[in-house]
Design brief:
Layout (H helix, E strand, L loop, with lengths): L1 H7 E2 L2 E2 L1 H8 L18 E2 L11 E7 L4 H7 L10 E7 L6 H12 L4 H14 L7 H10 L4 H8 L2 H17 L6 E4 L3 E4 L6 H21 L20
Parallel strand pairs: 4-5
Antiparallel strand pairs: 1-2, 3-7, 4-6, 6-7
InterPro entries: DSBA-like_thioredoxin_dom (IPR001853), Thiol_disulfide_DsbA (IPR050824), Thioredoxin-like_sf (IPR036249)
GO molecular function: oxidoreductase activity
Organism: Neiella litorisoli
Length: 237
């Protein structure tokens, strides 16, 4: 993996095009028994497991990232009744700050699903676009959001606090690129640690299984209704 890390690293920030090429490399997937901390994932927690009803999973992304699009096609392999996913827009480049604001503004609107879908496509088509407040306001107004609502919510102190808190957390976790997944506040997996989308899914499933076992050992038990079927194998694209 060292040679891949050298290829995809540029000023500490990965190129989305290179990331997707890395994820599409047709190398064999490592077996679950071979997943190693420091190689396929990072342990970031102290080993204590939460006793809540679900395992929190933070998914750091950018809509303009091709590898995020590939990963999201397989999210159903990881989503289950005992996981709670939170999508967090990364801020690894200056204009991603405005894309993060756009994501949160879209989430607050009645037509949130439609706006988020359109925002995703907009950034796929023009990754460098929507890079200032004026362009964001114009984009939302064109899609039916009241201009005053767009201005007020984009400049909201609460939204700014959320964006700043995400950036602080991103720096604390030393997130290097997207997609990145943080599982149960204990483990971190990113695209630089794996050689394919399938391996990314496999490592994440393995870490979820580890957390579930730890939760059971700590006394947390699922009811019969909560028991989950085994995940379907991930098919190669």
């Amino acid at each position: 993996m060292a040679y891949i890390n050298r290829l995809i690293s540029k000023g500490g920030i990965w190129s989305p095009l290179v990331i997707v090429l890395c994820l599409l490399v047709g190398t064999p997937t490592v077996s679950a028994e071979s997943y190693q901390a420091g190689t396929h994932y990072r342990q970031i927690g102290n080993g204590q497991v939460g006793q809540g009803a679900t395992i929190a999973i933070d998914y750091w992304f950018w809509f303009g990232c091709a590898s995020c699009q590939l990963f999201e096609q397989r999210l159903t392999q990881l989503q289950s009744a005992d996981t709670e996913w939170r999508h967090i827009p990364a801020q690894l480049r200056p204009h991603w700050y405005f894309h993060a604001k756009a994501f949160y503004l879209a989430e607050q609107q009645p037509q949130a699903d439609q706006l988020i879908s359109q925002l995703r496509q907009q950034l796929i088509d023009d990754p460098q676009g929507l890079s200032d407040i004026d362009s964001l306001i114009a984009w939302f107004v064109e899609r039916g959001v009241d201009v005053n609502v767009a201005e007020q919510q984009l400049m909201s102190p609460l939204l700014n606090q959320q964006i700043d808190a995400n950036l602080t957390k991103q720096q604390h976790l030393q997130i290097r690129g997207v997609p990145t997944v943080v599982i149960g506040n204990q483990y971190l997996v990113d695209a630089g640690m794996v050689q394919s989308v399938e391996e990314f899914i496999g490592v994440t499933q393995y870490l979820l299984a580890v957390l579930r076992q730890h939760r059971e050992e700590a006394g947390f038990e699922w009811t019969d209704e909560d028991l989950l079927a085994q995940p379907e194998p991930v098919s190669a694209q």
